[in-house]
Amino acid sequence: MAERWVRYALTAELLSDAHPGSGSGAGGIDALVARDRHGRPVIWASHVEGVLRDAARRLRGDGAASGFFGRAGGDRQRAVFTSLYADEDPGSHVWRSTARAAFDNRAPKDDTLRVVEYVPKGTKLTGQVEFPESEMPVLQRLVQEVDALGGGRATGAGRVKLTLAESPSKPRALGNVTGRLVLLLKNRDPLCITATATPDNLIPSLAFVPGRTLLGAVAAWLIAEGDRDTASLLVGGSVSVSDALPLPHAPGKLESVEVLPAPLSLQSEKPKGSAGEVPWWAQPEGATRRLDVWRAQEKLKRPEDDLFVYRGDPTEAWVTFRPARRVRLRNGRPDPEQADASLFAIEQIVEETHLLCELRGSRKDMNRLTKKLAPVLKGQRWLRVGRAGAPVEVAQLAWCHDASPAQVSTTARLTLTSDLLVRDEHLRWRTALYEDSLRALPGWPGDVQLSNSVQDSVMVHGFNGTSRLWRMPAAAIRRGSVFEVSGAGVVKLAQLAASGQWLGERTHEGFGRFRLDAALPGVTSDSPASIESAPIDDADEETIAVKAQEWFKGHGALAKPGGGSDGKPSLSQWLDLVADLERGDATAIDARLAPTTAGARSWKHWDAKAILDKLQALPKPSHRASHARLFVRWLRADLRKGAE
What we know:
The chain is of the alpha+beta class and 644 residues long. Among the domains are: 5-166, no CATH class; 180-258 and 313-400, no CATH class; 538-643, no CATH class. 24% of the residues lie in helices and 24% in strands. It has 13 helices and 33 strands. Strands 1, 2, 3, 4, 9 and 10 form a six-stranded antiparallel sheet that branches. Strands 11, 13, 14, 23, 24 and 25 form a six-stranded antiparallel sheet that branches. α3 (211-224) packs antiparallel against α4, α9 (538-554) packs across α13 (621-643) and α10 packs antiparallel against α13. It is globular, with a radius of gyration of 28 Å. It starts with a strand and ends with a helix.
């Protein structure tokens, strides 16, 4: 009999300031706290698991700890943790420290100032943990053992009170089974789908979840529940799983949502050149125009690898978007005997990203799969997906019938919505398709001609979790490749796509999906619609940095030696100003322009007051914070140069 699993809320209440390190610094701060996609503090699940594992080792030894938390090359971890997230931004505290000049001399040593951001005392962060009910006593004991989280625990930082509370979930109804199940997935934690089998110190991630990865996650869940027969429906090809493509937001009705990788012929205008000190890539960006390369006259840029095209309903206009991804720094030891940990970075799809996929099969097979997979489909259990098994839940589901064939004439655009695996007569993987190779595809109508194409190839990698070995790589026709087809057989192609009869090999793993359209999806109209997630103000920061440098050049006296002792604000006072502005303190500048304490009189220095006036004149509080941060970066760099 399968074990009963339960889900509990894990809450951390900070009893002192804590630093859940991010491994990065900026704006005059040497170590920033980790933050989620909303800018709120977060304690990553890997840190919580590591602290609990250390507690298990102290209490019961390495063997018991490995039994509960898993081991490399062995059993998986018994419990699945999410990270601990804050419901609102509590602001931050900034701690500063320096090294002593000598053991018996408390004077600060030159150039040793360290500035660290901390989450303030009293903040509550909450996550969830899913585990077998039989492990409840073990987890409760480990939670009681942990009294601190984050960096600096030995010096009193990060003291915490951890509590477990039951988190009941309301199961949803499964509905009437058909041969097509559409799922809306949501990753509870950042998700890394490794894009290569040979990563270096940066592990890149795909911007979507391939069907083979999702199929493996579902099959692994069934096998862990002791149901290999139902898992064979997936790995044997009776039930096919599509790629899980990201969405810009949660949709209203799953049945009408359409999302696909950006067609390669949907290209964008190149940026116009500009004169001046600021380079073109630092100029403020307007809306990106997406054009059909076969209809445009000018030279265009190919779409980005992570660009997608979406519409929530056939009556809506297509929009382009890019899912948010971030890079997270980690420490690890590839060799267990390695003395020092190695620093590496992981690219991840941010938490709470919605992804759309579908499962297809006969009604009999889908009914059998649904009964065994019911806890996952009802939202009571999570799937473990990607690197380190990030928790992914089913947020919505909808049983659908086959879609109506696309309304196309004898000429249409065929777009690959997933990678296509095709072999030639010598069993080699094809990296390009032409008219003769298309006609050789099983099921391809003979009366279809190929006019134009924009196509590319991509290497396909994979990992077999059962054998714990990498799968042999394959070469595929890249998703987004576009073919202009014509002929009487185009209508039959539309019928194949509507009924889920795909092209090439390993279609049950998500390969070979395609769609037909009368016009290219995503072409910009007169009023461009786009919700692309732009980089985090890199271009704006470059422009602000130029202005901040001009301010610094005009008031360079602030960087001369003796700051704080000759009437000028010290570096610590400048850093305090930046921290107050970034925290949104409305009185940060006014309090310094009209100081009421002896320590704040240094802000009356002519150059310091001039900078405060410039900051005050900026229209938005966010502009003041960014200008102050970059000005202090110039100031700090010059002070360090003078100290050398």
